[in-house]
Amino acid sequence: MDSDKKYEVCNEFSEIVPEMARVFKSLGDLTRLQIIYLLATDTTGKLGVSDLAARLGISQPAVSQHLKTLKNEGLVESRREGFYIYYTINRDRMVEFREHFELMYASIMEKCSRELVRKSTLDRDIRACVIFYSYSGITRGVAEGIRNASGCDLVEVTTKKPYTSFSVYTTGVLRSRKMACDPIMPAEIDVSGYNLLIIGTPVWAGMPAPAINAAVRALKGCEGKIAVIFTTCSNYPGEALPILSKALSERGVRVMAEISLNAGDTKNPDAGGELLRQIIGADPLRGLDEGRTGLEQQNVRDVKL
Q1: How far apart are CA 240 and CA 216, in angstroms?
Q2: Cβ of 287: how many Cβ atoms within 10 Å?
Q3: What is the DSSP letter of 280?
Q4: Are 175 and 210 spatial neighbours (Cβ–Cβ below 8 Å)?
Q5: 191 and 287 part of one domain
Q6: pLDDT at residue 261 above 50?
Q7: How far apart are CA 244 and CA 228, in angstroms?
Q8: Are 72 and 160 part of one and the same domain?
Q9: Is residue 193 a part of any domain in this protein?
Q10: Which of 124, 115, 157 has its CA nearest to residue 277?
Q11: How far apart are CA 262 and CA 10, in angstroms?
C-alpha cells in the first residue's frame, strides 16, 4: 500500500474510531441488544415502549432509558402517530456502522496476514508478483488485498480496447469460449526477477478471460517458475482453472495450487488476505525447496481449494 493510501486510511480511522467506540458502548448491554433484535425482526412497524417492556419483562421507564441511548447514537429512530410513538431500526445508520466495522476489520486482518507472511517466509527469499485481469473490479480488489497484506508487486493486465457492459457479454464471452487472446497492455510481462507468480482472472462462460490468456503468452523469463492461480466467479469456475494451469505448464511454469473464489468469498472485506492465507496453507513455496533438493516434479501435489 503506498504512503498516500496509508495516510488516507489512518486519517479515516482517526475520524471513525471515537464514533465506533460510542456505538459499541451503546450496544454493550444485553437489554439494548434484545431491543435491537426485536425491532429488526418486527414486521408491523408499530412497536412502542409498552410493547417492548412487555416482551422484555422490564419496566417502561427502563425501556425508555435504553431507547434514549440507542437513539442518541442514531441506531433507532421514532415516529409519532397520534398519541403513540413507535420505534424502528435506522437502516442508514446501520449501513454506515457496517461499513466502518468492515474497514476496521480489513485493516486488522491485513496486519494479521502480514505477520503470517513474515512467519512463513523466515528462511526463504520470496520475490512474488500478482498478475491479474479485472473487468468489474472484483479480481482487482482481491489482487490488491494480496499486495497490501504481503508487499508483493502487482501487474494489472488491461485490454487495448476496453469491453463495454454489452460487448463483455457478447464478444467477450464468445472469445473466452474460443480461448482467444485479446491485445493487452503491457505487451510483455517480464517475470525473470520473481520466484513466485500469483495469477488471477475472472471466469467468463466457464473459461479464463481472453486477456489473461494473452498475459500467459506475454510472460518473459517464466520457465521454471512456480505459480498459484485463482479465479473469481459467481458460483462455479467451470474449466477456467485447468485451462489456465495447462497454458502455464506449456510455458514451463509449475502450478502448485488452484483456488476458486465465488461471490460469497469476494464479498469478504479481507478477500485478498483470506486468499493469501489459503496460498500459504497450500505451501506453494515447497516448489522452491524441491528445486533446491532436486526432488522430482511428480512429488508435487497440486492443491485445489
Answers
A1: 13
A2: 23
A3: H
A4: yes
A5: yes
A6: yes
A7: 11
A8: no
A9: yes
A10: 115
A11: 30
User: What angle is formed at CA 141 by the lines to CA 137 and CA 143, rounded to 5 degrees?
Assistant: 115
- Please say whether the beta carbons of 147 and 129 come within 8 A: no
Question: pTM value?
Answer: 0.67
% of the chain beyond a pLDDT of 90: 66
Determine, yes or no, domain membership for 109.
Answer: no
Domain identity same for 155 and 17 = no
* 15-48 pLDDT tens trace: 788 888 999 999 999 999 999 999 999 999 899 9
Q: Is pLDDT at 294 greater than 50 in this prediction?
A: no
| Residue 12 pLDDT | 64
Q: Tell me, what's the pLDDT at 105?
A: 79
Q: Answer yes or no: is pLDDT of 115 > 80.
A: no
For residues 214 and 16, the model is more confident at 214
In whole angstroms, what is the distance from residue 88 CA to residue 50 CA? 14
Cα–Cα distances in Å, from 172 out to 48, 135, 165, 179, 272?
A: 55, 11, 10, 10, 26
C-alpha cell at 11: 486519517
Q: Name, in order, each residue with C-beta under 8 angstroms of 79's C-beta and a sequence gap of 6 or more.
A: 85, 86, 88
- Please tell me whether residues 28 and 171 are part of one structural domain: no
**Range(s) of the domain holding residue 257:** 123-304
pLDDT at 13: 66
* 47 belongs to a structural domain: yes
Do 149 and 118 meet the contact criterion of CB atoms below 8 Å apart?
Answer: no
Shared-domain flag, residues 141 and 290: yes
